[in-house]
Amino acid sequence: MHEYDLVIIGGGLVGGSLACALSGCGLRIAVVEAVPASAEHQPSYDERVIALSWGSRRILEAIGVWPDIAPEAEPIRQVHVSDRGHCGFTRLGPDDAGVEALGYVAPARVMGAAIRSALALSPDVELLCPARLLEHRVTADRVELGVQHGEARLRLSAALLVAADGGDSAVRRQLDLETRDERYEQDAVITTVSPDRPRNGVAFERFTDTGPLALLPMTGGRYSVVWTCRGEETSTLLALSDEAFLARLQARFGYRLGRFLQVGPRRAYPLKLVLTRNPVQPRVVLIGNAAHTLHPVAGQGFNLGLRDVAALAEVIAQSARAGADLGGPAALSDYRGWRGSDQPSTARLTDLLARVFVNPWTPLRFARNAAMLGLDLIPPARHRVAQRFMGVGGRLPRLACGVPLEKADARN
User: Fold this and answer.
1) Which of 134, 162, 217, 372 is 20 to 30 Å from 124 at the Cα level?
2) Helix axis angle, 13-22 to 54-62, nearest 10°
3) What family classification does the UniProt entry report for this protein (predicted)?
4) Does pLDDT of 191 surpass 80?
5) pLDDT band of 410, cuts 50, 70, 90
6) What is the pLDDT of residues 197-206, one digit of tens each?
7) CATH classification at residue 57
8) Sorting pLDDT into bands at 50, 70 and 90, what band is 406?
9) 226 falls within a domain
10) H-helix or E-strand containing 347?
11) How far apart are CA 77 and CA 105, in angstroms?
């Protein structure tokens, strides 16, 4: 039996960030990750990117990985929000929140490499990869796990099990937890385009009758496209020639960036809302997509997961310094207090936006356009909205303030 204080299932961006945050806290940590680091290190034109809020940047700074991400992260200095075919629009900028940027667009490849590099330098973190969870059993004071690591079958034991294993979480399935699971009957078509008049630092969120169309600024004058379409339209968009797709996108978005000149390969992902009713169980905590999978509108999914990391890391570090039980009722109650509001409220907000802006009912259309125009004209309202989407409102844990955790001496 291999003994640990904490076992994290999933060593991706969320699970890896938690391990980085807790490195140096005097804990024995195991990270179980199924997918080896990619051998492909060269960036591609259409590489996957992630929209990071300002609050997420502070978390990544506090855990020590932001310096490796920053050179390839494009700042978002303004967000232009509009309702296609109608007069409603609003603009959010860093002045509304008193920061240098509302957020950043960073390649997932770069973020993953920064986290893996930090883990490799952490003597108290053991990365088991490729490895997968077979089963787990909760006892009064421990969690016992069976893990397949290469050809070997390992038995692990820990005071706390953290599931960061994505939207199809094996831990969630094994616990048979109740979830709110709703399909949007929409897909997100993802690609990269190059316009002839890029506007550095300006992101666009355009609401259309099929869902939001987001264009996120990338380095090199490129834009990442997240095009929400009805499920029956997806195959057509994927099958179009590059020229025909660019023409369709141009008609959908307009000419705020000039003409679109180049497009990368397209991929489609079905959209759904999955919200675990109680992601905190005896000696088990679900974080990130294992706890909540959101509609991509407003780019809140990964940022919500990093806020899970910040709160859980603080609770675990405090318990370690006090010599308390990491997976005991007191620690889990503290974490539930941090996250019990933010997770469901962010899920409700993204769900509301996804549904309200595709509803063609005339009174509702007038109301949402009036709301956007009013928001554009009232700085205090813009400030509150900017803070909400930047993840800097309310009571914040240390990492979300950009402050590293207080480290504990190694435990006896």
Assistant:
1) 134
2) 50
3) Belongs to the UbiH/COQ6 family.
4) yes
5) very low
6) 999 999 998 8
7) 3.50.50.60
8) confident
9) no
10) helix 342-356
11) 11
Burial grade of 54 (CB within 10 A; 0-12, 13-18, 19 or more): buried
Return the C-alpha torsion angle 123, 170, 290, 13, nearest 10: 30
Q: Is 376 helix (H, G, I), strand (E, B) or coil?
A: helix
Interior CA angle at 358 toward 353 and 359, to 5°?
Answer: 105
Containing 374, the helix (H) or strand (E) segment is helix 362-377
User: Residues for the chain: how many in total?
Assistant: 412
Kindly report whether the global pTM for this prediction surpasses the value 0.85.
yes
**Whole-number pLDDT of residue 352:** 81
User: Is 374 a residue whose pLDDT tops 60?
Assistant: no
Q: Which domain holds residue 138?
A: 2-73+101-181+272-357+391-401
DSSP 122-133: -TTEEEE-SEEE
CA distances from 320 to 28, 102, 337 (A): 11, 34, 18
197, part of any domain: no
Residue 150's Cβ-side half-sphere holds a number of Cα atoms within 13 Å equal to 4
Question: Judging by beta carbons within 10 Å of its beta carbon (0-12, 13-18, 19+), is residue 32 exposed, middle or buried?
Answer: buried
Q: Provide the token pair at 160.
A: 């706390």
Q: Is 371 exposed, middle or buried (0-12, 13-18, 19+ CB in 10 A)?
A: middle
Rounded to 5°, angle at Cα 88 from 274 and 86: 100
Q: Number of structural domains, the chain? A: 1
Q: Is-contact 238 268, C-beta < 8 A?
A: yes
